[in-house]
Amino acid sequence: MKEFFNSIFQTSSERMRNPVVGSFILSWIVFNWKSITTLIFSNKIIENRIDYISQNFVDIWYQLYYPLFFTVFYVLLLPYLTLGIDYILSYAKIKRKETATDEIIKDFKDKQKIAVEERIFEEAKAGNAEISELNEKISDLTKVNEEKQKTINSLKIDIDELTREKKLLEAFMNIDNQDESELTVEQIELLDNEYKEFIKTEDASYFENIAIEINQFKNVPKSINQIVIERFIMRGIIRKIDDEENQRIFYTLTRKGKHFWKNFVLSKDILSKEDWDNEHDLPF
Question: Can you give the pLDDT at residue 260?
Answer without folding.
Answer: 95
